[in-house]
Amino acid sequence: MPGHQLAPDIPTDVLAAERAHLSESRDALRAMRKHAQSLSSDAAGDWVSQQILQSLLDQRVAALADHPDTPLFFGRLDRATEEELADDLEGRLEAGDELPATIYVGRRHVHDGGSRALVIDWRAPVSRAFYQASPSDPMGVVRRRRFGYQGGDLTAFEDEPLAEGGELGPSKILTQEIERPRTGPMRDIVATIQPDQDEIVRSALTQTVCVQGAPGTGKTAVGLHRAAYLLFTHREKLARAGVMIVGPNKAFLSYISSVLPALGEVKVDQTTVAELLGSYDAPERPEVAAAKGDARMAKVLERALWLHIVKPTEGLVYTKGVHRFRVADYEVREMVASLRGTTRYGPGRAALAQRLAHQVLVRMEQRGDSPDDRVQDAVARSKPVKQLVESVWPKLTPAQVLHRLLSDPDFLAAAARSDLSQEEQELLLWSKPHHSWKSAKWSVADAALLDELADLIERTPSLGHLVVDEAQDLSEMQLRALGRRCRNGSATVLGDLAQGTTPWSTRSWKSVLRHLGQEAGEVTELTLGFRVPREVLDYAAQLLPSIAPDLAAPRSLRPGLGSLSVRQDGQVLEAVREALTREGSIGVIVPDSLVETVSQELAGLPHAVLGPDSTEEHRLLVIPATLAKGLEYDHVIVVEPSDIVAAEPRGLARLYVVLTRAVSSLTVLHAKPLPAQLA
Ligand SMILES: Nc1ncnc2c1ncn2[C@@H]1O[C@H](COP(=O)(O)OP(=O)(O)OP(=O)(O)O)[C@@H](O)[C@H]1O
């Protein structure tokens, strides 16, 4: 079996040659940057074009920066020569392209003055073999070389012969990368993307992909790399249409915020559902939130909006000078009827004004006048037309409609028809209605309803691609809201059914895709965990039969023997002091109600408390259990699991999330009995 060869078993002259290539590539990148800096925006015709061109040039210069600590290339492919192709009787090697036989794969393209490619972007089609080639399908590659770095220095490499059949052993460089202690924000994984992850990253722009994966299988990493891949492959289209990453909260966004810039992509919006739909936080009972999150609300809202249209009983009288022009009531009724249901509410209103004005113009022409189009606009804006439109098709805001719906039982009943039961309607109505829509306090669930109404009034613009993380936590109505934002594009949907902690957490990805409006989306699974040691993952997986019985137990790449410690009556301070003697970040995850207490217990040690909007970095953090989702720490100390479970209806799922944040060690401290599943 051909194994890996890792320097220093390899002759040092080979290492020296690779270092020489690195240094040549760095020089070439410097020259490219110098050239970009020398370009002037003066050529642009006017001031505005000049500013646009200058900003593009600035971006190009920034993208060509050489970060000394970041490897410029991390892989090399030696591709089959003409003779090797001819000798390959089994037809496993593919004929090549115009590129050199040896290519280096890195974060960006680098070429010398003569346009010789020194480094090829990892997203280019030819780089695919770096991630996908195997002895059974070498994809034209004879040998794959992976490079190891310390800081920016190339210190090691590892060869994988691909043209000799057999199997490859585990990659030491991959293992080292995964074991590297975590400090600060999330890193890119561009050097070690695995074949199944690469399939997702490189799926077509038109394809919506939905990834189910156990904790730490790289879903977030894959979503971010897919965004970078799509931006590279469809630069122009997506620069226009836009790409957006939607995550659960700001602390999570801050954690992932450096990945795309490190990959050279700075123009991607990273946001939360709350930021997108409105940061409302009025408290609400879970069952009310769940009722409001149900997709049946879409029909109710649609009816509620259109119920505001009043059957016209009067016609229009428009006076010009001594003349009066009339549009009869039945004509107005016909106009309203023909517009209703064929346009959105807002444009329908504008169209009604125009149709009324048009009819007035017809009357004027019948009288012998010859008014032009400007007269039609003036009539449409005139007082009598405005008054009639307002009385028949009133101007509305989403808040007005929702306020009425949640405070007026008869109106709710009329809008709900048989779509909501009596009990559901009672659940929805405010127990103490707010005086006016202006003073109403909206909840998280209301935000999605307001957004639905806003779209029924005016169309929401669509982006080119949306990456939605922790999607299992979104309600059907929130999914509809996100679906509107990728209506003309596609999405990458990431999540884990076992980590659903909201009152409306989904149990099926097919249903998520349906509510997102991306039914043709493909559901796929990542099964190998890169974060959590096996011992810890097996411990946490005892909760799975209770929270997601249909999911298979997660697998971990890393055995992590001795990584788990469960201590009855153990002290936080002592556990933290122990962790501080080791390398890497420390997360003390506690029931939300104990944040203050635990922070005081640690008063003697420099630490920070993670809040929903936190962006600060600290080696030692106290984290409320409800904010731990998506994050990871080298050493995790979980305090009082049974309180975490008791704090919310889906507390066991919350505990599963909390127990799966550890990269190196997990210490569980409890004074109360552990939940039965863990006991
Ligand atoms: N191919 C890879 N090479 C190296 N590291 C990887 C790879 N894939 C994932 N990782 C690392 O594993 C860790 C977990 O990845 P990530 O946060 O993307 O997982 P996740 O599936 O989103 O987890 P969760 O469900 O808990 O949010 C991260 O540190 C990530 O960098």
From TrEMBL:
Keyword ATP-binding assigned: yes
Hydrolase found in the keyword field: yes
Span of domain UvrD-like helicase ATP-binding: 192-533
Domain of life: Bacteria
UniProt-listed PROSITE patterns: UVRD_HELICASE_ATP_BIND
Signal sequence coordinates: none
Identification of the protein by name: AAA family ATPase
UniProt lineage: Bacteria, Bacillati, Actinomycetota, Actinomycetes, Streptosporangiales
